[in-house]
Structures are given as structure tokens and as C-alpha cells.
Amino acid sequence: MSDRDSTEADEQAQRGRSDLASKTVVIQSKRYHIDVKENRRGKFIKITEVSPIGKNRLKMSMSAAADFRSHLESFCEYYVKLPPSDPDNLPEDGMLKSEMVMKENRRYYLDLKENDRGRFLRVSQTTIRGPRSHIAIPAQGLVEFKNTLTKLLDEFGMDQETESQHDLPESQHFKIENKTFYFDMGSNYRGIYMRVSEVQPRNQYRTSITIPERGLQRFADIFSDYADKIKDMHDQEQDQQSGDQGGD
Prior knowledge:
The protein has 248 residues and is an alpha+beta fold.
């Protein structure tokens, strides 16, 4: 064992984390290490992209990785049906196909893009407290990457914590004007909660509030009350305008 491996092992032991499996995929000049790890919260997937200019990393719960794998299948099917790349006729924004995975307090943006160097899948991860991280996978290696991830998921499956979280209602979001609002259900040792987040489009800066389960109904009642009052106010204004027009 090298000094580096020994140091990492010591750090993992101190954090209560263990390595369960690891596979490597080589695509062009990049290497991708797909690791299954486990800590006190359960099993998770760590993906490390190693390129000549450095390293990029993503972490996913087992359920998020399963959703990611499902989307990879659709991206692979989409990619093989694309016509040959034309460097003189690239998409204006480079975007070919886009999807999003929402799990717990994280979001994963999957963007199949094209530039003068070729086609690639950019996978970006955002969290409430941390900055965005991402990896980029050359499109011609998507099938091998997906198959490798599938083997690990088939072997290690879903842990109990992830399965219990998967029973919670699915996340939802909507856009209004230039804002996007996300509604996520989660759970921890304190119980079930809802997180409501607003994301600014320019810098992806996120602000959030967390509502415990016991306060959800009261929260909904107050929202509904204000929505009804605003609707009544607009209805009265319309009635008044109609009356004024009738008087003329």
C-alpha cells in the first residue's frame, strides 16, 4: 500500500467510511473512477473524473445513481440516432438534450452538448450549502460508463436508508418570471421535513427554508388563506372596473 493509500485509509477510518467497490473507465484522455462507499448514513456512489488538467468529483446516493443510470440509457439511445457532427453547423448554445435528477437536497443537471471538440455529457451537481461541481463524459464513452455503473448498482443495490427516503413524495418545481422554486421532501433523525428553495438563474445561488412535518398543514393553510384573499381582491377590482364601464 502506498503512503497515499495508507493516508486515505486512515482518514476514511476516522470518518467511519469504508470502500466497498471501485471500477475504472478510460475514455479518450480521461479516467473515471466509480466507487461504492459506505458511511454511517448508508451507501453512496462517488465518481471522480481524472484528466490532464485535474480532478472533478460527484457524489450520489444509491437512489440518485439509479435515476442517473436510467437517464444515461435515454441519452445513449438519443446519441446513437444523431447525424454525424458538423463543425460548421453547431447548435447555437451547444445544447442537444437536457434532463434533471432531483434527490434529497441535491440536483443533478444532465446536458448533452456539442462544441468544436465533439459531443459530451456534462453532469453538474448542486447542493444547498456547497458550490456546483461537475464532470464531463465524452459521448462515445457513455455506453461503457453506463454499463459499469449498472454493474455496481446491480451488485450493491439500495440501502435501507435510501429506500425509506424513496417512499417520500417526489420533488417538484416550477418557474415563474425569472425564478425557479423547488419543493423537496426529506428526512433525518429529527423526522420528515419540506425544503422550499429559490434559485437565482444567473449564478445558481440558492436560498432555502425548511418546514418540519408538524408545521406543513399550518403553512399550507396560511398560503391558501393569502391566495384566496389576493384572488378576492382582484375579483373586486374587476367588478369595480366592470361597473365603472357600465356607468359610462
